[in-house]
Amino acid sequence: MFQSTSGGNGSGGGAGLGDSAFHNGFLHGGVSGGAQLTRSRPRRGTRRRQHDQGGGASDPRVSQLRDHQDTERHPRPCTDFDVAYFNSYAHLGIHEEMIKDRARTDTYKNAIFQHQDQIAGKVVLDVGCGTGILSIFCAQAGAKRVYAVDASDIAVQANEVIKANNLSDTVIVLHGRVEDVEIDEKVDVIVSEWMGYMLLYESMLGSVITARDRWLKPGGLILPSYATLYMAPVSYPERYSESIDFWRNVYGIDMSAMMPLAKQCAFEEPSVEMISGENVLTWPHVVKHVDCLTLTIEELQTVSTRFTFKSMMRAPFHGFAFWFDVEFGNPSVNNSKSNNAQPALVAAPDDTATETNKSKKRANPSEGLVLSTAPEAPPTHWQQTLIYFYDPIEVEQDQVIEGSVTLTQSMENARFMNVHLEYSSGGRSFVKESVMR
Length: 437
Ligand SMILES: C[S@@+](CC[C@H](N)C(=O)[O-])C[C@H]1O[C@@H](n2cnc3c(N)ncnc32)[C@H](O)[C@@H]1O
What we know:
Helix content is 22%, strand content 28%. It has helices at residues 19-23, 80-88, 92-100, 102-114, 116-119, 133-140, 154-164, 205-215, 237-243, 259-267, 297-301, 354-357; strands at 15-17, 123-127, 145-150, 171-175, 181-183, 187-192, 216-223, 226-234, 271-273, 285-291, 302-310, 315-328, 369-372, 384-395, 400-409, 417-425, 428-436. The protein has two domains: 15-192, Vaccinia Virus protein VP39 (Rossmann fold), CATH 3.40.50; 227-436, Hnrnp arginine n-methyltransferase1, CATH 2.70.160.11. The longest helix has 13 residues, at 102-114. The two termini are 40 Å apart. It is an alpha+beta fold. β6 (187-192), α8 and β7 (216-223) form a beta-alpha-beta unit. Strands 8, 9, 10, 12, 13 and 14 form a six-stranded antiparallel β-sheet that branches. A five-stranded parallel β-sheet has the order 4-3-2-6-7, sandwiched between helices. The chain binds S-adenosylmethionine. The site of S-adenosylmethionine has 22 residues, from α3, α6 and β3.
């Protein structure tokens, strides 16, 4: 027997929660706990652990566990860090911030309606439905049935929103991890907003791949379809001055003794902040391009690339900026993408030639809808992620900057990301290790 938070699936879909959800520490479909006082994406929320499992177990709206054993699958266990992660998404502020990000939400809405011919009359899965907004867009686009899955307690609210909009016959809210819930039919479309800071932070893409491998029909559609992570060297004297040079003269007092500590405090970890196109010293390098239809979870564990830049100007070089874009396009619809799903960007990720970096511009921007978090694009809540050096390097015009970057899922907490950066310029070489937590 299958049950959902919407109290049934009158349209005929079958769904529920596997026993694994219970074994992984869930008292019910979700991972309850007190909502955290965080407004931003779970960068800060994941730092605090919550073990409080109360709140949802007695709620009649939450899904019930299925009574058969899932013997074949071995979903990744739900750790304390995952519980804290899902708790951070139980707070309304984080959803408000995302929904108010017009660049993000409008692009998803437009992409869903642009693919209406592939959604109308079809079965959709929304991986990480949050408030249910994308599921509702899909229902409005004519989906026959939408499975809206979220492990956070926000799923309970999503279910209320679905009911209030008279969509309970179409949208079935499942309160649990996609790794654990059961859906007894294949889906035509997967929609998900999974991108973290620096694209891969938060490690939610693995859950989308799991969902794809469990339920997506051959030839099905994933929105977004492609994602690309970029990096570029930046100069940001104002930022350096405001955090470091500030200590040279504080109310007439020489506090420069603070400067080493100030550098450590300001620049030890990656920093999420907004820069402008003017801060960027040259064309970006593609760190990783993924096709969501073919990507494997193993590919995400370590992402590594070598880069070569040539500074376009003489400037103090303060660090590297990272940003991403995602593209909503179906290879079977876009002729130019053929069946082997060519990426929207021309060059290969490991192409290190500086001249060819210049060709890493969108081949044809009209092909698919793109949500970009680049410095020159409209601002988003993701901003850009900066990895600053402790001391700037003075670079001349045309000076070469080369090295490598490796992004690895943290062993301590798979939601965290280790960043290993090696770079050299002007005959000097450096290594910077940091953790995005
Ligand atoms: C970035 S939010 C997006 C929310 C909503 N789709 C939107 O666009 O506003 C990601 C959501 O995915 C949920 N989530 C992340 N990983 C999940 C998983 N493995 N199973 C179920 N839900 C997950 C989180 O709890 C969170 O609510």
